[in-house]
């Protein structure tokens, strides 16, 4: 089952959550990565890996594509031109630096994200952001909903 609609619904539940560096608690605080982590937990349960502590300038210090590498491990990379509402966009705030900001695409020209000094908000995907978008990812498909029917694997074998 495609995750995009569920991702977008969950992202909108986080709107107005204050910005808090390294946090990931809806209503209390999050940063851009914390928003993605919270969406993941709401849809899939436990996070796929623990996040080490990081500073606001973490990407500039090492110059590594840490955020992109993590996205490649847990999300499905897609062509940026094919991104749809509910997909994740990665940005390079400094055009010469690594990707260090992420957002959920919420419409053709809108994103939901948390950024320094602001709460989670749905904002315009302006030309400034578009120039800095370097990758797009989809969340993995959601497991099929439990139908409540007993599968053959769960039936006791007949002893007759």
Care to describe what's here?
With 160 residues, the chain is an alpha+beta fold. The chain is built from 5 helices and 8 strands; from the N terminus they run αββαααβββββαβ. Strands 3-8-4-5-6-7 form a 6-stranded antiparallel β-sheet. It has a two-stranded antiparallel sheet with strand order 1-2. Mean pLDDT is 88; it is low at 149-160.
Task: Kindly report the spatial arrangement of strands forming the biggest sheet.
Answer: 3-8-4-5-6-7
Low-confidence regions: 149-160
Helix content: 25-40%
Mean pLDDT: 88
| Secondary structure tally: strands | 8
Largest sheet: 6 strands, antiparallel
**By helix and strand content, what is the structural category?**
alpha+beta
How far apart lie the N and C ends?
39 Å
| Count of alpha and pi helical runs | 5
Q: Please state the CA-atom Rg, rounded to the nearest Å.
A: 18 Å
% residues in beta strands: 15-25%
**Approximate shape:** globular
H/E element order: HEEHHHEEEEEHE
What's this, in brief?
The protein contains 5 helices and 8 strands, in the order H-E-E-H-H-H-E-E-E-E-E-H-E. The chain has 160 residues and is an alpha+beta fold. Helix 1 packs across helix 2.
């Amino acid at each position: 089952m495609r995750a995009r609609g569920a991702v977008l619904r969950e992202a909108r539940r986080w709107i107005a959550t204050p910005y808090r560096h390294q946090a990931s608690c809806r209503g209390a605080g999050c940063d851009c990565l914390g928003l993605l982590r919270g969406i993941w937990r709401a849809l899939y349960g436990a996070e796929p890996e623990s996040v080490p502590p990081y500073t606001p300038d973490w990407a500039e210090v090492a110059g590594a594509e840490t955020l992109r590498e993590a996205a490649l491990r847990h999300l499905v990379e897609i062509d940026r031109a094919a991104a749809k509402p509910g997909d994740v966009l990665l940005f390079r705030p400094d055009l010469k630096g690594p990707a260090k900001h992420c957002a959920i695409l919420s419409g053709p020209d809108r994103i939901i994200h948390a950024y320094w000094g602001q709460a989670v908000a749905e904002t315009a995907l302006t030309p400034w952001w578009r120039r800095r978008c370097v990758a797009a990812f989809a969340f993995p498909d959601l497991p099929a909903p439990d139908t409540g029917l007993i599968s053959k694997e769960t039936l006791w074998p007949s002893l007759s």
